[in-house]
Amino acid sequence: DQQVKQNSPSLSVQEGRISILNCDYTNSMFDYFLWYKKYPAEGPTFLISISSIKDKNEDGRFTVFLNKSAKHLSLHIVPSQPGDSAVYFCAASRDNFNKFYFGSGTKLNVKP
Amino acid sequence: DTAVSQTPKYLVTQMGNDKSIKCEQNLGHDTMYWYKQDSKKFLKIMFSYNNKELIINETVPNRFSPKSPDKAHLNLHINSLELGDSAVYFCASRRGGGAYNEQFFGPGTRLTVL
Does B97 have pLDDT greater than 70? Predict the structure, then answer.
């Protein structure tokens, strides 16, 4: 039973445009959410996070939005760059933050 | 200087063999993890140690045994390898302590069981 789902396996966007990656979760107890970026043959690297007390967190070109009522979060990348082409995983945690649940990833391709 | 390292990067072996994957972190973190990325690409937690103590043990076959000789190392030993064990295994570490902080992942070990 997957508690974190990324329903779009892939996304293709033109350079300079906005990329929107989506993530849904089922457990209302989750209170910490993260996005990771993964290049081929490398491990995931942390990108941005948000706690459940917020609905938006920004870091440069990356913004994460959290809609708790819909159990949905999204990652916006503006403007998208070819170097952003990677697989993006969302993850969620609850309580003591030791256990993290990951989605299956969305492969983003930013075309020059 | 690599923060979280794993060896080997690739491992090809026959069914029934026993193998180990090693993980080391030089970040001074208290908590370490093993994840399995299966064919469906989900990253599933297997084990977690905090200061050498096992704190998370998911529904993983007994053939998998983690060992943490010190808080900088978390090794994974797998007995009697099966075809279904083929996957990419990621080690990760985290500062821990119940705070809002992220995990740092190793590069992964691609295990292929023939």
Answer: no
